[in-house]
């Protein structure tokens, strides 16, 4: 049942107060460095996805996916790059396992290539060699005590299913469910963390609105809503299959990875701007999170905006489809934990968008701008705004009833120097720590992106997110840990940023006052990174990270670092 108006009003007020609380923070407060550690058992992970790393695009019976078809036919990707070989992980499983072991991660997030398992997308085409590959990977992880966090669908739809209309068709709900059912039955004795779909908002908007990603349908006003509708139902059905058939025996959990930027209001003292920022959150994250984590239905902001626009556009009905009561009941509550992928923050302000052409983007009635004071990353529109992560986590806590949260992706592509990536992780993870330790957000895990340099979708191999360097000019695809891998290793080892001994006395004095932070800002606070090889650092076995030497040469302090 829908919540009463009074409760909804109160909730909205809480979110406003939250925005006000943070947005009125001084820059100095925002930059304070917080020492502390995460709770015991915190899940430190690293991520990849099948198309980005596996290669072997037609090896051993694998069927083509929409990304195979797209990259092999388009000329819009830099250097006409594709994932035909990528990091060749299909043939280099042991190297991957070695690196994961050396990094000492607690979990590894990877995805299954649907068309490697079912070449034509359906069970009748089962490819045992594909299944064997994932069995070896999962067994290898378990042997090293690394929890497999498995995404069932990370954008690489079997091409055969696209030919019968892909996610535009409601038939996909059952087809996806059968694929998931097979994976639960086959791998679920060892996989205890399932993610049904990665970033459905990207699938709906980039795949069917902008059309810059496969299946390259350009229809900004209609199809994204239809596709999202089917994706939500497909997710819910897979959840119920796990819940009904496997959970009791296998004891795992299942969720969906939603992408969320933080949208900061241009002026927190203007109600309309705060409402606009909230609406921006609802259009991106709430589109999927509201039905799944709240009441089975779309957020009011979405229903209201799209409904009103459609009416003014003289359409017979809203471009946003609606769920029946039965569907709402089926969808609500279909995630055990909240999984969020986060990369950046944007500043938004109110704007009355044109009525034509019909578009999800203009349905939002807002303008976006970059956060002015933050460092850029290599990717346009992805500035490194670490404080946005803390705000986002607090917003999720308020909006969705304090769920357990996993950050399932966070990272940066950097233009020149891996040292910038180190600074990115240092600042972002510290903000996650503040959310957990100071704000009471129930953060359960953090996943760095990416495991290694890999095929970065529309950017090919031009912008790379890896903590490990991969030499793509060498057929052996040698991998080498970067400085950031060492840094992340140390964070994992320390379970955060424990207060260093030489700061303790100072800190004790401060504790008599109200200050819980170090006075260091992120920029002034030293890195405290041991450049020793981790194997000299307490590892008892022979697995170690070997530092990429060219990157150590480049390490230097930036003159000004505005975090
Ligand atoms: C989100 C996607 O899930 C992931 O595959 C990609 O590498 C990152 N964004 C970085 O762009």
TrEMBL record:
Keywords recorded for this protein, A-Z: Glycoprotein, Glycosidase, Hydrolase
The keyword Hydrolase is assigned to this record: yes
EC number from the UniProt entry: 3.2.1.21
Tagged with keyword Hydrolase: yes
InterPro entries with a match to the protein in the record: GH (IPR017853), GH_1_N_CS (IPR033132), Glyco_hydro_1 (IPR001360), Glyco_hydro_1_AS (IPR018120)
Active site residues of this protein: 409 (nucleophile)
Domain of life: Eukaryota
GO molecular function: hydrolase activity, hydrolyzing O-glycosyl compounds
Protein family: Belongs to the glycosyl hydrolase 1 family.
Stated name of the protein: beta-glucosidase
Organism encoding this protein: Maylandia zebra (zebra mbuna)
Lineage: Eukaryota, Metazoa, Chordata, Craniata, Vertebrata
